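Protein modeling request. Please complete all fields; requests missing the sequence field cannot be processed.
Requester role: graduate student
Desired output: 3D structure, token encoding
Chains: 1
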Amino acid sequence: MKRILLTLIFNLFIFSPFHLLMAQTEVEPFVPGSTLEGVTYYLPRTAFRVTIICEKTTTRPGDLYKYADRYMRLKNVPTEESVQWNLKSITLEPYGKPDPAKAYSIKIKSKTVAPLVGLSRDGILLSINCDADESFLPDLPKPEKGKAPENPRSYMTQEMLAAGSTAKMAELCAQEIYDIRDSKNALIRGEADNTPKDGAQLKLMLDQLDHQAAVLESLFAGTTQTDTEVFSLFYDPQQESDRDILFRFSQKLGVLDADNLAGEPVIASLKAMETIPTSVPSEETAKRRAKMERGIYYNIPVRAKINIKYGGQEFVNMETPIAQLGIVEVLSNALFDKKTNTQVTFFQATGATKDVME
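Delivered output (358 residues):
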């Protein structure tokens, strides 16, 4: 019967989404190869997913750029393809990451009243004697393709398409653009034979002429397309810092690795906004502490301020609790003996107590 019970407990731990187990609150630091019977859990350290949104503008020369000045009097038109990146936004999303330095094991013993322990999929302690929902980072925003430039050949006449040389095609295209402009001016002055009397219809015709002229003019002036690109990386601060290089950014190359000197650094700073008072040791405190050492370990985080800057511009200015800047405390095992059924939930990103109910 005992063998069957142990099997059921093992299966419950493996297949439950929160790894729920009946366990006695005798807790000790986890030692690989030494802790044989128990449920191992981790306290988290607070890490961040960094989401970066950029605009990528691609400029392409028109097929007739060599004739832009001769026929259209356009100066400084693009002669080769180029890309320009613009850093639009940076956001931080905190999450809990198992801290290997804070691994503990709850021993499983028979003939005891044991608490129900809820763990996340990666072993972070979520709850005791109750259920707790595991949280996940939201999906990243989707990249967006900008509107592609129209093909100007769709607006060319048969004579343009049949031109025997590029120079002749440029001449005919330029003449068509000037003709469209003349037609627009005639409509505005009311001199055109087919000038509509309805204002809305007139605006529609003018817009169509403007669009047709702009598409043909792109043969000389070139085109631009702006896409929205999304990047992400993870930031795991170890301690307070004035200068953590998250990544580098180049207006020509976009988002780069932190060690790629082709871009300018994007700097993160982390500063604790409070300190946890240091306890004054005493003989009585030491005795009480010794009795609690086999209880449940949890984090007391410290609130910290995070700034992210690039090129003199501040992209992030936020305050949030950080587990690794705080301390570890213990919930007494007396809370989980035969006489009580204390329910506790913990913040997944910090390991701090969220709710404690009897």
